[in-house]
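User: Let's play a game. I give you a shape written as tokens, and you guess the letters that built it. Ready? Here's round one.
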């Protein structure tokens, strides 16, 4: 998956090519903190924890 625009975003993506749920942070078209999960619930829980810890994500709620 291409990060594209907007920059500085959290992504949780299902990769149908390998059946994995992939988390990463996008900034300036680059992927950071890439993590892959085989279990959807585990991926969602991880993503939720990232958002709860993020000061930037909380500023938009």
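Assistant: Ready! My guess for every position:
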């Amino acid at each position: 998956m291409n990060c594209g625009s907007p920059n500085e975003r959290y992504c949780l993506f299902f990769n149908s090519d390998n059946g994995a749920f992939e988390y990463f942070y996008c900034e300036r078209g680059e992927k950071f903190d890439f993590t892959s999960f085989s279990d959807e619930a585990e991926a969602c829980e991880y993503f939720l924890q990232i958002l709860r810890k993020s000061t930037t994500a909380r500023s938009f709620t």
